Amino acid sequence: MGMEHTLKQGGFTLPGEAGYEELTLQMARKWGADVIRDSDGTQLSDEIIHAGYDIYSTICLIRSDNAWAKQNMDKLQQNFLMSEPVYAKGDTVTIEPLKGYFTQQFAVNWKDEPKEFWQVFDRTAGTEVPAGNWDYDEQAGTVTVRGCIPYHKYTVNFLAIRLWEEISMYNHITNDWGDKEHLMAVEPRHPETQAQILKWLEQWCKDHPMTNVVRFTSMFYNFTWIWTDHEKRRDDFTDWGSYDFTVNPIALREFEKAKGYKMTSEDFINRDLHNATHNAPSRKYRDWMDFVNQFVVEFGKKCVDIVHRYGKKAYVFYDDSWVGVEPYGERFKEFGFDGLIKCVFNGFEARLCAGVKDVQVHELRLHPYLFPTGLGGAPTFMEGGNPTLDAKRYWGNVRRAILRAPIDRIGLGGYLSLTQKFPDFQDYIAQVADEFRLLKSFHQGGKPYCLPVKAAVLTSWGKLRSWSCSGHYHEHPELDLINLIEALSGLPIDVEFVSLDEVREKGVPAGVDVLLNAGRLNTAWSGGEAWKDAKLLEEINRFVANGGGFIGVNEPAAQDFSTQFIQVADVLGVDIDLGTRICHGRYQYEVEKSHYITADTVAADSILGKDGVYLLNDQVQVLLEKEGAPALTANQFGRGRGVYMAGFRYSLESARLLMRAICWAAGKEDAADTFVCDNLYTECAYYPDTKNLVIINNAEEPQDCAVKTPSGDVVKAQLPAFEIKIVSLA
Amino acid sequence: MGMEHTLKQGGFTLPGEAGYEELTLQMARKWGADVIRDSDGTQLSDEIIHAGYDIYSTICLIRSDNAWAKQNMDKLQQNFLMSEPVYAKGDTVTIEPLKGYFTQQFAVNWKDEPKEFWQVFDRTAGTEVPAGNWDYDEQAGTVTVRGCIPYHKYTVNFLAIRLWEEISMYNHITNDWGDKEHLMAVEPRHPETQAQILKWLEQWCKDHPMTNVVRFTSMFYNFTWIWTDHEKRRDDFTDWGSYDFTVNPIALREFEKAKGYKMTSEDFINRDLHNATHNAPSRKYRDWMDFVNQFVVEFGKKCVDIVHRYGKKAYVFYDDSWVGVEPYGERFKEFGFDGLIKCVFNGFEARLCAGVKDVQVHELRLHPYLFPTGLGGAPTFMEGGNPTLDAKRYWGNVRRAILRAPIDRIGLGGYLSLTQKFPDFQDYIAQVADEFRLLKSFHQGGKPYCLPVKAAVLTSWGKLRSWSCSGHYHEHPELDLINLIEALSGLPIDVEFVSLDEVREKGVPAGVDVLLNAGRLNTAWSGGEAWKDAKLLEEINRFVANGGGFIGVNEPAAQDFSTQFIQVADVLGVDIDLGTRICHGRYQYEVEKSHYITADTVAADSILGKDGVYLLNDQVQVLLEKEGAPALTANQFGRGRGVYMAGFRYSLESARLLMRAICWAAGKEDAADTFVCDNLYTECAYYPDTKNLVIINNAEEPQDCAVKTPSGDVVKAQLPAFEIKIVSLA
Question: Domain Lacto-N-biose phosphorylase C-terminal: where (chains A, B) (predicted)?
Fold first, then answer.
């Protein structure tokens, strides 16, 4: 890019706003921007475009040419839906498949061979109704099932055509856009659609000679977002990572050719659970994901190539419509993207962005967005809002992750004009931009020092869902794993993500000291039925017995199988009674007052209790009790160690406790002796190549802290709220 | 019996105490006793025996002749145990079967063909190790398993001989009896044991000519009580109703002959769950119970016949060692018992006793027992104790049940001399005895009026476990069903108990208005895997759709099967997310301020919340919210109704709420218009034949109340704490 980068300038993407040309250029100077972008719904004026900044424009290929989409309604995207259940009163049941769904979003696809793709189920008996026992009637809009058993309930899985692209739908309805055109998502599996998309993109590149960076938002398939027509339950199902919207007759038929077997509607409906990223995936679903990923990469690469041909860079947005892109997949490098952009509220999202290989630029879109309201409709850039405090908190979340992993760019989104009434916000962003550029410069000197322990997060997904539980922290703060990875995102500990399949097949990866597994029964985070495989348990038991560590949270490795519920119960020294062991005696215990793990804090507000947790032997140390049951325990298993936490919520306290638990489980109690702040409200990172020690205050109050260095020296620091301090140890 | 019964005398069994002859006779007069009994560890003196009262003596056949037991150690009772798991390090594992168990209670039975009866399991893989891969060594006291997989864990199921009868063991250890002889339980399956028992009993009858009533305590098999040698976990497994101690080689071989298939050790060990009464029983286990019951009745009848031959009556105690007796079983009448005695803390236990058919006398042993300490070691008849208040509370629990169902006798147990320092207790018992005799006289005139609704408690056990969840209330107050039946025990509602099998096979019994199902997943109270049977659901859905009611509590009808967790979710209008539906939207709702069910009280302290409960449609009425989820809901299903409670704890408030919920679910909102107190701390019963209205104050404070009669009259009453008032409507 054209402009010279200094510590006061560069690495910053500013949202320009037509009509506010002076403000745009003023803020660009104040914040050290090198790039000006448009936003969803904004356009840049010629004055801004020609002001000497790099220009960055957003496009969304699947909803970009609505006129074409309208002329090709047979080429819209599709997905499977399950009808509402209908109880049989006699031996025939009539079902309206679409009843209860949002009819502006969905229409029934009556055209593509219902008998090939649809299925009818008796959901009382849990059995499929033979295809010969049901018929569909497009005119009536119904399916009739014969040979029913009275008082059983029946559902139809059917293909639905999507009439309204979900981001367009959401913005339209939220902002009350009235008559404004509904955008539609076209299905790129059709050759005609592909031709149209490539043609449109080529023309767009020609029409935007000043654009240096094209941001794809994102590729072809949105996250799943199924709406109902129930006022009191608008959302039927929403998941940032599931592949429901990649389904259509072409894909289903090609899958069968490619993989040698057929995906059924029920493979997607999955007893109404769909294939939520949160749940342990089936082998068939993983095959489908692979099949879709291959297509998205192949066709996506053609789009990226066009952008490159016009001398522009291609970035991809890692939020909307990224399904099939899989930045942590093996094929991602084949796209040829130059950059990846992630909008971030939290530290783990910064690590999610930073951890993607094979792109040169990792860019964060910071919150708050320049909108009148923020999360849950709370005021931001309007009366009653405090965007500066919001920004400090979000930056506080994100900064501790940026200390650990390099990020190349940051930026904002939204309406710049809204900042005019908040000059302190404008000032604070200037400070954030400077902090960011400084940290970036430190990373350029090399990796920061990590404690000599390596942790691996063990899930069904492994690397493919690194640094993520599908979605933002505030959407599912009840997930233990999202809290754990938020804590990990800023800890001075090497972290990798490993799948149950990998461990079963190849053992625990070399170099890993501690495994973490956290979640509820049958989720992808806990692991589900994979834990019935003794080979997996052999590997884990061997790893711990020989000195490894295992930290289990909530219902880790859970499955109602054999003599245990937690399948690694002996490693942890605890198991969970779901109500069928009330006649069994439980070990009495006393809470250990003093332990390495809780030496700094027991994080009592952040470690939850769980009913039914019980000890397996009298050597297990109970470090915290809640609700009358052990909530935090430490156990020896062979030469290794197990730590159990009944529940984990992120806080500065629990992040510290987690760090110590990892060191203890690894059997490396002295690992945290150096380059760790003695005050848990502060954290530090040491960059050995440039000998810079960065200390941050994560708290909203001033803090004092001390950091021991390997030479035995102690660096002391006093930091105002949210402050950063750089100490040179040269 | 000899003495004349008046309202001031009769129906009362007093524990006599040698050395306190004067006190014994004084209290016998004061309390209107007609019978004097001995107690465990007490003997009656000749003076008492010849005082003109009926005499009642306790015997326990299986531990009555310890000298014989010592000479016949090969005929002691046995049971299966599972060894502690041992992890394989190489391909061989050596296991000490008995390690960790209480060796004063158990010895390994090495003699009876271990290869026939024992099993070895790989509990990591959940598979049995072939018998050819293990050997036992009596000398070494070990089992060696070959062909092991390292890092798998192995256990041995083995036959253990019981060296110490558990009641003897418990009393011995609790009371520090030192050298006192350990009593042993002999196994009556051996013909020699049977001969010895019959001989002993015959001799005993001859030796006790003054005894009018022989109380069997109880028959042959104690409830399961497995102890460990771990100081911090004395109890391994304790259940009042499970059949572990009925196992031995003779029985196992005879079972195979009788039923045509073999019970394995694992059928009893059951993944270390044993066959707790609380858990849904397998078909095989039910067969075993039937097989044992047949034997206990057959041999028990021979014992009863001897007692009858000597002109005495035979009563059976419905607490210790009643396994195999099954007072609610089809064969119970064949014993020929004259009476049944139940010790009671609570109302449901009074109903448990009252509900047994085919005995003439139903007798309650009231608490507190005349011991220095009571529940959990709290002081009773000693300094710091308040036995009168204890007695009022227990009588308060029990009396409301006695209003509903006739009891023939009451009595006390323990050391009468302990009452000397508590004259107010002596006075209060006189009052209780009078109240009891009055209520008994009312029942003699006919059944009390019930509201025109009939409820059926639906469990795996049905009638066989009527009015019981295996054990006392205070042992498992966390069980929803024990709380529900305690509430039901005093409500003016007809109650029956029905099994899932019966409903599946024959439908909901005629006359039943409302089904209740309450408990956690896989328990016998919720029902377990039976809910995967669509035939059962057909019957229940039909019943409700045609106007029936269904009240589900906690995890009713639960099974992770098909599209629902609560298999009757549509009936209730709610289901439960265990963590795999976090991406699904939930219906928003407002709590109904006014509803028939909550018209008297919402019982907010007694209805618990449960995480994950969600509504299935927007017509469900939420009557109480807890922990952010619906805790009490009301739903229409066809012409019937479903009520869901996330958890139920007994209180006077929740008993009232339950009564109204039953009326509402039955669609009979006017059922509670008459003969129901307007003040929920009071209850009443109307005896139509004698036109007596009995009003009781269940509270520890004075209460006013009013009762509407069918004629429209209103009876008003003021009652001091715990008082009873009789109003004649003649």
Answer: 675-726
Q: How confident is the model at residue A174 (pLDDT cuts 50, 70, 90)?
A: confident
The residue of chain A nearest to residue B563, with distances taken between CA atoms, is A271
Instruction: Judge whether residue B8 has pLDDT over 90.
Output: no
Per-residue pLDDT at B1 = 32
Q: Closest partner residue to A582 among B228, B476, B521, by Cβ?
A: B476
Contacts of B152 in chain A (CB under 8 A): 534, 537-538, 541
Query: Is residue B264 exposed (0-12), middle (13-18) or buried (19+ Cβ within 10 Å)?
Result: middle
The whole-angstrom distance between A588's CA and the closest CA on chain B is 5
B116: three-class secondary structure by DSSP: helix
Domains of chain A: 68-168+244-269 (2.60.40.10), 454-672 (3.40.50.880), 682-728 (2.60.40)
Query: What separation in angstroms does the CA of A180 have from each of A40, A174, A177, B535?
Result: 15, 13, 6, 53
Q: State phi, psi for A109 to the nearest 5 degrees.
A: -90, 90
d(CA B549, CA B640): 6
Say if residue A273 is exposed, middle or buried (CB neighbours under 10 Å; 0-12, 13-18, 19+).
middle
Instruction: Locate all alpha helices (DSSP H) within A132-187, ordered by sequence.
Output: 166-174
The verdict on a CB contact (< 8 Å) between A579 and B151 is: no
B328's CB contacts (< 8 A; 6+ apart) are: B355, B356, B463, B464, B465, B466
Cα B328 from Cα A105, distance rounded (Å): 59
CA of B615 vs chain A CAs: smallest distance (Å) = 10
The beta-carbon neighbor of B271 closest among A238, A522, A562 is A562
Whether the Cβ atoms of residue B226 and residue A584 lie closer than 8 Å to each other: no
Catalytic residue selected from A38, A236, A319, A320: A320
> How many angstroms separate the CA atoms of A559 and A531, rounded?
7
pLDDT tens sequence across B637-696: 999 999 999 999 999 999 999 999 999 999 999 999 999 999 999 999 999 999 999 999
Condensed to tens digits (0 to 9), the pLDDT of residues A421-437 reads 999 999 999 999 999 99
Percent of chain A topping pLDDT 90:
94
Q: What is the DSSP string of A326-349?
A: -TTSTTHHHH--SEEEEEESSHHH
pLDDT band, residue A6 (cuts 50/70/90): low
Three-state DSSP class for B26? helix
Are the beta carbons of B637 and B552 closer than 8 angstroms?
A: no
pLDDT in tens, A449-497: 999 999 999 999 999 999 999 999 999 999 999 999 999 999 999 999 9
CB B499 within 8 A of CB B490: no
Strand pairing class (A549-554; A514-519) = parallel
The pLDDT of residue A319: 86
> Tokens 């009536």 identify what position?
A140
Cβ–Cβ under 8 Å, residues B244 and B79: yes
Q: If you measure CA to CA, which chain B residue comes closest to A227?
A: B585
- Measured distance CA(B221)–CA(B218) in Å, rounded: 8
CA dihedral A266, A268, A274, A278 (to 10 degrees): 130
Q: What confidence tens digit (pLDDT) does each residue in B79-125 have?
A: 999 999 999 999 999 999 999 999 999 999 999 999 999 999 999 99
Whole-Å CA distances, B646 to A113, B581, B611: 44, 18, 9
Query: Which chain B residue lies closest to A148 (C-alpha atoms)?
Result: B538
> What would the two tokens of residue A623 be?
């470090």
Q: Based on the number of CB atoms within 10 Å of its own CB, is A139 exposed (0-12), middle (13-18) or buried (19 or more)?
A: exposed
Concerning whether A320 is annotated as a catalytic residue, the answer is: yes
